[in-house]
Amino acid sequence: MFGQGNMRVISGIALGPKERIVLVEVEDNWLVIGIVPGQIRTLHTLPKGLDINQTQADDSHTPPPFSEWLKTIRERRSNAE
């Protein structure tokens, strides 16, 4: 059954009619999953319960928070259409 056991869907967002990004909890991790027709891919992994909107220190070697990365991707997609 959906959402039972060691796995559950935390959140999701539609990027298009057939494209989605889903946040899935698996034991002590959150997996950011990209879903398109015929393919499912892990995009990012976070510790369970991490505030995905938290600000990170300004460090050129630290990647931007996932929420910023997703916002950038969505803006690029909107500009391309």
Number of helices: 1
Shape: globular
- Along the chain, the helix and strand elements come as EEEEH
Strand order of the largest sheet: 1-2-3-4
Portion in helices = 10-25%
Q: Compute the gyration radius: what is it?
A: 14 Å
Number of strands: 4
Largest sheet: 4 strands, antiparallel
Distance between the termini: 38 Å
Number of discrete domains: 1
Mean pLDDT: 76
Query: Which regions have little confidence, pLDDT < 50, spanning 5+ residues?
Result: 55-59
Question: What is the subunit organization of this protein?
Answer: single chain
Structural class: alpha+beta
Beta-strand residue fraction: 35-45%
Please describe what this structure looks like.
Helices cover 19% and strands 40% of the residues. The chain is an alpha+beta fold and 81 residues long. It has one domain (7-80). The chain has a four-stranded antiparallel sheet, with no helix packed on it.
Helices and strands in order:
Layout: E1 7-14, E2 20-26, E3 29-36, E4 39-47, H1 66-80
Antiparallel strand pairs: 1-2, 2-3, 3-4
Short précis:
This protein has one helix spanning 66-80; strands at 7-14, 20-26, 29-36, 39-47. It is α+β, with helices and mostly antiparallel strands and 81 residues long.
